[in-house]
Amino acid sequence: MMSIHSPKTNWFLTRLLQAFVVVVCLLNGWAVVFVADLSAADDERLWVYFAGNSIHVYEFDLASGSLTLLSENQQAEPSFLTIHPNGRFLYGCGKNLSAFSIDPASGELSLINKKPYGKHGLCHLVVDRSGKNVLSAGYGSGSVVVRQIEVNGRLGAETALIKHESMDTSKAAHAHSINLDANNHYAFAADLGLDKIVVYEFDADAGTLTPTDSKSVSLQAGAGPRHFSFHPHGKFAYVINELDSTIVAFRYDAGQLEAFQTVTTLPSNFRGENYTAEVVVHPSGRFLYGSNRGHHSIVSYEIDSETGKLTFVEHTPTGGDWPRNFCVDPTGQYLLAANQKSDSVVVFRIDPQSGKLIATPYRINMPNPNCIRFLRPKAL
Asked: Do 370 and 338 touch, CB atoms closer than 8 A?
């Protein structure tokens, strides 16, 4: 039985009390002022989903940066998460592709169904903007996959499975991520083994991927492209290279990527071993962040709004070991860094003018954190 003092119960009782006060206020002609306060209260919290040995659900306080555990779901051990555009479903990938429903009152997850993907599994996934399909990348198999989403969020039929191939027999395909442009017309698979961003035409209605060799982009040999991120206005894109610790900036138009800048993610005096992981553009479009595993830091850059060019800002230690993933909250106020090997998540506040990361006293411990996703709660 749930304790009367649990965060979930306390939040529900608070909202029940607020509803009672709304009725009183309506009777006394005070509704306008109180309803404004009620909306403000809703805006002060987010739900956060952490993937690892299970999926942990936390409430995040935007006013302070603190985290409160709400629930844990042990029905999957995903390596990556994504949330449906309607906010009602969450999908995770690993050895299985798993679908969950999200309780609109508590954020709690309930398993809908799973689809197995064998010993190689899947390492990255997104839901397309129509909400009709889950697109996934398989590192071990070197493949990209599309599976339909049914009306109730259930995983349906597999509609596309394409294995990357190379003319160079010394290279093995390792599709590490897949992303879509803002128009939902093109998919971009960063393949670490092929040193290539493979570009596909995407048909959301049919759930199909059509290779476009003329648009695919080859990178420096040994770069190892891992993750890929679009600028909010869609004119620029960035890929982080795991093996040579660089970020490449592209101009983007209608499926076509044009590289114009390459920057290092490391300080010039660093001599250790390093593997990059995540790359994220700030919601404002003013800053870009990347994670270093080995240097154990987040590197920050300022983005020129006209050209997309990156200018180095700083390196910030993540307060732990092996920051495999990090996420910026939708309001752009905070960055949460998941230190996989030290089993910790650390909260940083983001300076809105400089983009610099400011340490907070808040951190949580959990086994093997490897992906973070935010969601705005639905109003009761």
From this structure: yes
Q: Does any domain span residue 103?
A: yes
Bridge partners, 144 (sequence order): 137, 162
Q: What is the DSSP letter of 221?
A: T
What is the structure's pLDDT at 38?
32
Write the burial class of residue 131 (CB in 10 Å: 0-12 exposed, 13-18 middle, 19+ buried): middle
Residue 354, in any domain of the structure: no
pLDDT given at position 119: 82
pLDDT band of residue 42 (cuts 50, 70, 90) is low
- Comparing C-alpha atoms, which of 131, 71, 125 is closest to residue 94? 125
Residues 33, 107, 97, 229: is their CA dihedral positive or negative?
A: positive
Q: How many domains does the chain have?
A: 1
Tens digits of residue pLDDT in 260-319: 999 999 999 999 999 999 999 999 999 999 999 999 999 999 999 999 999 999 999 999
Q: Could you give the 3-state DSSP secondary structure of residue 250?
A: strand
List the one residue out of 340, 330, 251 whose CA is nearest residue 291.
340
Yes or no: say if 34 and 24 are a contact pair by the CB < 8 Å rule. Answer: no
CA distances from 225 to 96, 110, 175, 213, 278 (A): 24, 34, 9, 17, 11
- Of 365, 259, 355, give the one whose Cα is nearest residue 312: 355
Q: Is residue 198 part of a domain?
A: yes
Question: pLDDT tens, 64-76?
Answer: 999 999 999 999 9
Q: Is residue 311 part of a domain?
A: no
Q: What band does 10 get if pLDDT is binned at 50, 70 and 90? A: very low
Start-end of H helices in 203-347: none
Question: Cα 103 to the chain's mean position, in Å?
Answer: 20
Q: For the domain that residue 182 is a member of, what is the CATH number?
A: 2.130.10.10
Domain that holds residue 161: 75-218
**What values do phi and psi take at 14, rounded to 5?**
-60, -45
